[in-house]
Amino acid sequence: MDPGFRLLPVLRYRVRREDACARAFAEAVRSVETALRHLAWLREQVTDAVTALEDTARTGAPAGVIHVLAEVPAALARAVGRAGSHLDAERRRAEHARRALVKASQDRQALERLQQIARDARLRRAAALVQREHDERATIAHRWRRTAPGSTERPR
After folding, report:
1. Residue 52 has what pLDDT?
2. Stretch 49-78: mean pLDDT, rounded?
3. How far is it, in rounded angstroms, from Cα 38 to Cα 17?
4. Structural element, H or E, at residue 27
5. 29, exposed or middle or buried, with CB in 10 Å at 0-12, 13-18, 19+?
6. What is the DSSP string of 47-71?
7. 98 near 1, Cβ under 8 Å?
8. Quick check: 75 and 42 in contact, CB under 8 A?
9. Which of 46, 59, 98, 120 could be a cystine partner for 76, CB 3.0 to 4.6 Å?
10. Is 147 left (phi over 0), alpha (psi -120 to 50) or beta?
11. Domains of the chain, start order
12. What residues contact residue 112 under an 8 Å CB cut-off, 6+ apart?
């Protein structure tokens, strides 16, 4: 970062904000992945419970046992619904974090463009000063050569 840039404190803040947004987005993505794994596990449990219920019914188990076992897939199905709602909430949170990260990146990039413009302007001013100094030296040398030989008058 250019220490001569007037907006350097703002740029530093924007960089820190972008880093914080990137961390929040990464955490939100991890939460979505965790919720997806949990939902998949619950769905697998529902499938296993239904299979166990069907096997029990085929073996001729009493109706009371089948009725009790039928509650397990129903409870797991409710858990799948809650997990699906949680997953949707996590996805919304991740999308919000992604938007915040994009905005923070755009803000930082805008300030970096301003910094580059300021740096380029400073380099152009320095180059113009050097050129002006060279032109003045060339003018003085030209005047010096134009004076008559042996003359004590010096150019101004």
Report:
1. 87
2. 86
3. 31
4. helix 8-58
5. middle
6. HHHHHHHHHHHHTT--HHHHHHHHH
7. no
8. no
9. 46
10. beta
11. 8-120 (1.10.287)
12. 11
Condensed to tens digits (0 to 9), the pLDDT of residues 114-132 reads: 899 989 999 999 999 999 9
Specify the amino acid at residue 89.
A
How far apart CA 75 and CA 136 sit, in angstroms, is: 91
Taking residue 50's Cβ as centre, other Cβ atoms within 10 Å add up to 16
Nearest-angstrom CA–CA distance, 156 and 136: 11
Q: Is 6 helix (H, G, I), strand (E, B) or coil?
A: coil
CA distance 46 to 13: 49
DSSP state of 152: -
Number of Cβ within a 10 Å radius of residue 104: 21
pLDDT of residue 148: 58
Query: Which distant-in-sequence residues (6+ apart) come within 8 Å of 19 by Cβ?
Result: none
Least confident window among 44-48, 125-129, 139-143: 139-143
Token duo for residue 84: 């699906």
Residue 151's CB: how many other CB atoms inside 10 A? Answer: 7
